[in-house]
Write a structure and sequence with these properties.
With 168 residues, the chain is of the alpha+beta class. The chain contains 4 helices and 6 strands; from the N terminus they run βββαβααββα. It has a single domain, classed as Glutaredoxin, CATH 3.40.30. The protein has a 4-stranded mixed sheet. A two-stranded antiparallel ribbon has the order 1-2. Strand 1 and strand 2 form a beta hairpin.
């Protein structure tokens, strides 16, 4: 697979919370916000903001893809059922949520190796905490990385811009 910022996301696969393999090619043509999440994090309330973005822009070709991770403070210790309880029951999430993965280190999921390679953090840092967000254009190219503290609503204008390029 090609590397760097111009490489596409569509060659990657991930396992959904339902245990089924999902090809990211299923999201081809959509603007994506890829987020590593955790159910017990101080930023877990961002699920509500992510859902708001999803509902606002989904009909225009946008999706949020959530990837739970337990690498930061043991804040996603549960199984798929407990993750689903947080996402679906507590926050009413309707966007895709995947099975727990690692987002940094030697066992990092290839998707996150690609995203952090394309959009490294400060001084080349890997993902440093839960709710790091990656905006991906409709062609599958990583556009921008957002820190965990960045509230989802602050990303709305960038999503609008990426969607306008998609439709243009």
């Amino acid at each position: 697979m090609p590397e760097g910022r111009d490489a596409l996301l569509y060659g990657f696969h991930a396992i959904g919370l339902d245990g089924q393999d999902c090809s990211l090619a299923d999201f081809a043509g959509q603007v994506l916000l890829v987020v590593n999440t955790a159910s017990l994090c101080g930023f877990t309330g961002q699920y509500a903001g992510l859902e708001t973005l999803y509902r606002r822009y989904h009909s225009r070709g946008f999706s949020v893809l959530a990837f739970p991770c337990n690498q930061f403070g043991n804040q996603e210790p549960g199984d798929g059922d407990s993750i689903a309880q947080t996402c679906y029951s507590r926050f009413g999430v309707t966007f895709p949520v995947f099975a727990r993965i690692e987002v940094k280190g030697g066992n990092a999921h290839p998707l996150f190796r690609h995203l952090t390679g394309s959009l490294p953090g400060w001084f080349g840092a890997p993902v440093r905490w839960n709710f790091t967000k990656f905006l991906v254009d409709a062609h599958g190219r990583p556009l921008r990385r957002y820190a965990p503290r960045t509230a989802p609503e602050r990303i709305g204008p960038a999503i609008e811009g990426a969607l306008s390029l998609r439709q243009g």
